[in-house]
Design brief:
By secondary structure, the protein is α+β, with helices and mostly antiparallel strands. It has five helices and ten strands; from the N terminus they run E-H-E-E-H-E-E-E-H-E-H-E-H-E-E. It has an eight-stranded antiparallel β-sheet, with helices on both faces. A two-stranded antiparallel ribbon has the order 2-3. Helix 1 crosses helix 2 and helix 1 crosses helix 3. It is globular, with a radius of gyration of 16 Å.
């Protein structure tokens, strides 16, 4: 089964209070860090095992920018969305939401929550990469979004760039279909 990924590229790293603001906004759209029944949050270790932690500790770890983290957001008591938080040079933070295994309705709910967040955080947003097949490697996605280099392999279905940044990526736009969304974002498709 193909995975679905949403990768939000944002300028700068979130400190603890910014991360709390982001998670509070996502929670208002039904995507919470705190488990709705058990409470607390969950990180995933390198083998995918759950590590239960207080939500405040997770926010602290994200704010410290120690390295990549893998966490769970919750749509319900038994439905989670894995989120990888990583940092790339020079000063960009990437949150990748993995939507594989969700129903169509759940994918739409999670996607809507992330898109609402991006509109709220437009001033720090670099791009939202939408990769329904999960075929674009992280390094290719990074090269595309951060350095304006098209991937040699599979490309994402679409990337939403801040409209005011389009002039900085002429190579990416060559041969692409660009649609202004009217909300400060433009969609680029190949």
């Amino acid at each position: 089964m193909l995975e679905t990924y949403l990768s939000w590229y944002r300028e700068g790293r979130m400190d603890e209070s910014e991360f709390r603001s982001v998670t509070d906004h996502l929670a208002r759209s039904g995507l919470t860090v705190e488990h709705p029944v058990l409470g607390g949050g969950t990180l995933l270790d390198v083998v995918g095992e759950q590590v239960k932690l207080p939500v405040g500790r997770i926010a602290e770890l994200v704010g410290l920018s120690l390295g990549p983290l893998c966490m769970q957001f919750w749509l319900s008591a038994d439905t989670d969305v894995v989120c990888d938080v990583r940092y790339v040079a020079p000063d960009t933070q990437v949150l990748t939401f993995v939507l594989g295994g969700l129903t169509e309705s759940e994918r739409e709910q999670a996607t809507d929550a992330v898109q609402r967040l991006i509109l709220r955080e437009l001033d720090t947003t670099v791009a939202l990469l939408v990769d329904p097949g999960g075929e674009t490697a992280d390094e290719d996605a990074d090269a595309l979004v951060l350095y304006g280099r098209l991937p040699m392999g599979p490309r994402p279905d679409r990337v939403h760039f801040r409209t005011d940044r389009l002039s900085t990526i002429p190579t990416v736009l060559a041969g692409a279909e660009v649609t202004a969304l009217g909300n400060g974002l433009s969609t680029v498709r190949w």
